[in-house]
Design goal:
A hairpin with a 2-residue loop joins β5 (130-133) and β6 (136-151). The protein has two helices and eleven strands; from the N terminus they run ααβββββββββββ. The model is unreliable at 1-5 and 12-32 (pLDDT under 50). By secondary structure, the chain is mainly beta.
């Protein structure tokens, strides 16, 4: 967690300097009135959880890292509507502080369980850009995402045992994305939610869905 917050703080401190250095180029290449596309870099954090019918997979939120790049294109010159496609590394999962389980001698025990799911995620959203004043824009967005699991572990702290997360869930995920962004010159920040629609459970009897609140900061150029 300390490394995660250090990375986000570094991005917040470095980004304004980068934007100031490139102000003249930004105004000539990225203007809502006369350009048709943009690229962007993002760094942020997820606060993710798992919703499940199975007690051992219904987990509370945990923090994870997210970073990636986006490409946006204006759908029509006469309207401020943009289609944005991204590619992200995104950490999700969940945590249980007191999961109860049955011991061999029929006693009930408790242990902490943490699930980490690492994805390559592709979000696709439509943004509507509202010019509030000067170079300040507000951008609500709605769309979806697809994700492929590339890593992750489930740790059982009471048993001091761990296994691959994909022994319990499928690698493929997909769902809805909704949120809102703020843009000033080249600087960009956004917050939103990912609602997993795909059932990532490993059987037909229990459903498992990802949930994630995210915050990203970055630059557009």
């Amino acid at each position: 967690m300390k490394k995660l917050f250090t990375l986000i703080l570094a991005a917040v401190l470095v980004t304004p300097a980068f934007a100031q250095f490139n102000t003249s180029r930004s105004r000539s290449r990225y203007n809502h009135d006369n350009t048709e596309s943009y690229c962007g870099l993002r760094l942020g954090m997820n606060y993710a959880s798992l919703s499940s019918d199975a007690a051992n997979m219904d987990m509370d939120g945990r923090a994870g890292l997210a970073f990636g790049a986006v490409y946006g294109i204006q759908l029509a010159n006469s309207t401020p509507v943009w289609l944005e496609l991204g590619a992200f590394y995104s950490e999700k999962g969940g945590i249980q502080e007191d999961f109860s389980f049955q011991m061999p001698d029929e006693r009930t025990g408790f242990q902490k369980v943490k699930c980490r799911l690492s994805y390559l995620q592709v979000p696709i959203v439509c943004k509507y850009s509202l010019d509030l004043f000067d170079d300040f824009y507000i951008q609500p967005f709605l769309g979806g995402y697809m994700a492929l699991g590339v890593g992750g572990k489930i740790k059982y702290y009471g048993d001091r045992y761990s296994e691959s997360s994909y022994e319990k869930v499928d690698r493929f995920d997909g769902g809805l994305r909704v949120g809102c962004g703020l843009e000033y010159d080249m600087l960009y920040a956004e917050a939103g939610f990912d609602f997993g629609i795909a059932n990532i459970g490993d059987d037909d009897f229990n459903s498992v869905h990802t949930r994630s609140f995210f915050i990203n900061v970055g630059v557009n150029f």
